[in-house]
């Protein structure tokens, strides 16, 4: 294992950076327990004299845990107690780092089921 891989693993395992999650390929069960990093880049773009604040939600996952993330995969992000805090869906595959250790994916939150909608 390279020094880069060891440093990356330490970042993912650090409770201040990494988060526990369940990766569900294609949104199906059973899921695969993984560690993720959440990224929230923000961009402000201008068109003429108008400014737009574009927010995005990205997550990074180690390719050693999820070798081929795809659009449509669902990720259950867990809280400290191991319960599902948020479910997101992979909407884009942003990039793989130059050492091919981590994939960054664009995600969007899935709305929780509304109990009033059930028959």
SSE inventory with pairings:
Layout: H1 3-13, E1 18-24, E2 32-39, E3 42-47, E4 50-55, E5 57-62, E6 74-78, E7 84-96, E8 102-109
Antiparallel strand pairs: 1-2, 1-6, 2-5, 3-4, 5-8, 6-7, 7-8
Describe this protein's structure:
The chain is mainly β. The chain is 9% helix and 50% strand. The model has no long low-confidence stretch (mean pLDDT 84).
Helix content: under 10%
Low-pLDDT segments, ≥5 res: none
Secondary-structure element order, N to C: HEEEEEEEE
Taking strands numbered 1, 2, ... along the chain, how are they ordered across the largest sheet? 1-2-5-8-7-6
Q: Based on DSSP secondary structure assignment, what is the total number of beta strands?
A: 8
Radius of gyration: 16 Å
Q: Mean pLDDT, as a whole number?
A: 84
Dominant shape: globular
SSE class: mainly beta
Q: Helix count? A: 1
Distance N to C terminus: 54 Å
For the sheet with most strands, the description reads: 6 strands, antiparallel, barrel
Task: Classify the beta-strand content into a percent band.
Answer: over 45%
